[in-house]
Amino acid sequence: MGGTEDSVGLKRIVFVTVGTTCFDALVKAVDTLEVKQELSRRGYTQLVIQMGRGTYVPTKQSLREDGSFAVDYFTFSSSIADHLRSASLVISHAG
Predict the structure, then answer these.
(1) Contact at 8 Å (CB) between 48 and 72?
(2) What is the mean pLDDT of residues 8-37?
């Protein structure tokens, strides 16, 4: 499910979404070095965080110098459908 192919190889994207809420605890949890290292170890290449109304700002720093595990974030988007389609793994706040 999901994932896109680029000239370097398969992109395996983890998309984290909190919707319109403020859930800094989830954003902080996935922004830890330990979580990023584990995702990378499992073959994921990118972490995209939709942080909603939260005040905690994740780090955009790549895990490796070669950029083979990239991190990006944003607050809101008119549609997250493309992010959901391209993700190999979705972590969300629901309920």
Answers:
(1) yes
(2) 92
